Amino acid sequence: MRLYWTSLWAIITREALRFIHQRERFVAALVRPLIWLLVFAAGFRAALGLSISPPYQTYITYETYIVPGLCGMIMLFNGMQSSLSLVYDREMGSMKLLLTAPLPRGWVLFCKLLGSTAISILQVYAFLGIAALFDITHPAIGYVTVLPALIVCGLMLGALGLLLSSFVKRLENFSGVMNFVIFPMFFLSSALYPLWKMAESSELLHDICALNPFTHAVELIRFALHAQMNWSALGWSALALAVFMGAALLGYDPARARQR
Amino acid sequence: MSGLLVEDLTYSYGPKTALKDVSFSVAAGRFCVLLGPNGAGKSTLFSLLTRLLVSSKGRISIAGYDLQCQPRAALARLGIVFQQTTLDLDLTVAQNLRYFAALHGLSGKDARMRIDAALDQLSMRERDGEKTRSLNGGHRRRAELARALIHDPEVLLLDEPTVGLDAAARRSITEYAHHLADEGKTVLWATHLTDEVYDKDRLVILHQAQVLADGFAAEIAGDMPLADRFLSLTGAEA
């Protein structure tokens, strides 16, 4: 048992040390959603009328609407960032150290996942704090109840990153991941506009958005920020987590590995 | 006590055969050199020995533990120095070693004592607070060797550990690895340089995915220098 805990602690500490060494990564992770929040949303709110829909019980500003989506965006980018660092680790060789440790491979990958999730949660809270400074706030209890939702979403998006890293063999292929994963996932979701708004313009796009796990992650965060539970969002997010993690484990199975 | 056993190991990358029916064994406390030209299959063999790859054909046993049936017990008894450095260059020597110790379940005072002892053995103690990025090639290698010894493994695998080092650092690392075998560790040392082989060493020559010769270095060399024998063996087959 001790082996499991010391290894978990070591892997999370290393992720944290690495994150501290890359301060620009922290700044970039905050600047991106803040630009969306303070610039894009300010201009966009005039164009988009939002009716009252759960979990909101009154009219809300557009800034308030996109905060959960931007929390999801931070976690999405972080999941991809950790995927990138896994590919980097593999190219640099340090991944070998992890994979040759006397630990079940699933545990090693799970520890990695927990480490990257912890870091993305820190980033989300920093973002929520800065948003509060600009008067974009949520019910006080929401800042507590959002934590479990952030854990589920962080794990799910981290597992997606893990899965991608088992397929993406080289760093230079990573721009493809940006174009084909991050942007479609973000824009084809309820992060920037509610799904009923999407349905008004295209039923097909609405259906794609409804299937996108990122939509469910965002909705889970949205409801949790208002101390409400969205069971279907939780179910879909948990299912996506299980599928991504299972596929990532297969991807890292040494019996299937092929050296470059 | 058994050291390392490889039986009928075969591995292919698609249609390309990287290893074909490779068998050899190294008794406990022996220094065995795996000699082969580039592309002979040494790196594939190391990937299989460290379970980065798994073959469905053949068997590997480390310190008496079957790598397929008891992978964790086998890996726990294995110390590895990879050809490519696996140090985290942003961390200090001590942080790198602590990280590794924790991956093997060692922490607290026990880990500290083992790390200090390993660094002392390689005369690296005074550098434990330095970032590994600032170390020269020889010191990085020593740090990696110290790291591979923290958990007191029974079997040590070193994959071309002297690549890129100057003559003095090469000799120092080669001598130290032989000293470890004298102390009872089973050592498998992969190289393509014949001057790293001592007469008393066990020698396995790997060429074009197969074992070409297996015996003591002095016997295989016979009446000519080992380098000439190696070239005649591999050159004739090339």
UniProtKB/TrEMBL annotation, chain A:
Gene Ontology CC, one term: ATP-binding cassette (ABC) transporter complex
Subcellular location as annotated: Cell inner membrane; Membrane
Pfam assignment, any one: ABC2_membrane
UniProt keyword terms in alphabetical order: Cell membrane, Membrane, Transmembrane, Transmembrane helix, Transport
Domain ABC transmembrane type-2 residue range list: 24-255
Membrane topology qualifier: Multi-pass membrane protein
Transmembrane segments: 26-45, 65-88, 109-134, 140-164, 176-196, 233-252
Molecular-function GO term, any one: ABC-type transporter activity
Predominant localisation class: membrane
Cell membrane in keyword set: yes
Domain of life: Bacteria
InterPro entries listed in its UniProt record: ABC2_TM, ABC2_TM_bact-type, ABC_2_transport, Alc_ABC_transptr_permease, T7SS_ABC-Transporter
Family: Belongs to the ABC-2 integral membrane protein family.
Protein name (Swiss-Prot/TrEMBL): Transport permease protein
Species of provenance: Pelagimonas phthalicica
UniProtKB/TrEMBL annotation, chain B:
Gene3D superfamilies in the cross-refs: P-loop containing nucleotide triphosphate hydrolases
One Pfam assignment: ABC_tran
Keywords: ATP-binding, Nodulation, Nucleotide-binding, Transport
Gene Ontology molecular function, alphabetical: ATP binding; ATP hydrolysis activity
PROSITE patterns: ABC_TRANSPORTER_2
Domain ABC transporter: residue ranges: 4-233
SUPFAM superfamilies registered for this protein in UniProt: P-loop containing nucleoside triphosphate hydrolases (SSF52540)
Family: Belongs to the ABC transporter superfamily.
Protein name: Putative ABC transporter ATP-binding protein YbhF
Classification of source organism: Bacteria, Pseudomonadati, Pseudomonadota, Alphaproteobacteria, Rhodobacterales
